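In this section we walk through a basic example: taking a raw amino acid sequence and producing a predicted 3D structure, encoded as discrete structure tokens. The instruction is simple. Fold the sequence below.
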Amino acid sequence: AQLVGVSDNCVTEKDIARYGTSAIPNIDAIKAAKPDLVFVADYAHKDDVEVLTDAKIKVAKVSTPKEYVGISGIYNDIAVLISGEITGVRNAANTFNNIDGKIKSAANSNSKKVKAAIFVNDTVTLENGCVSAELAKLGGIDTLINGSDSKIIKAKPDLILCPVGSSEAFASRF
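The resulting token sequence is shown next.
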């Protein structure tokens, strides 16, 4: 299997085609690429999925994890679709364990403890057990707040976390 494109929000070092966001995919560009398989979030618009399936493109919905350990299930689902049951399960476990080890290692080597961080993103939930909160806690962040401009100014956080590609826009406001 070969990855031929990603969403605009995907962080990758590869020079690869971008096809919009999960909320606003570039359906025409996706169809033109003629992929064998497209992964969409479980909250993808039904109309977008129908357009792709009508174009004879296989679409696989991937669930959004509610907690950090749920990520391993997503890796498993994707790997099985790509590589089959036996190889897929093994590859997914290896991938998750590799990433999990890197996250925990980075968290343990964090020399400066961040006391408070603000997520500037209305779509991020910070409930106990959610992926964003668990990753932040692994990184040593004590307090998480979903933030508007006024909350950010009032909280004076050590760190502001925002969507990929928007850090300059947020930085210019403060």
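Looking at the output, two observations stand out. The two ends are 44 Å apart (CA to CA). Helices lie at 27-33, 46-54, 70-83, 85-108, 131-138, 149-155, 167-172. In the next section we compare this with other chains.
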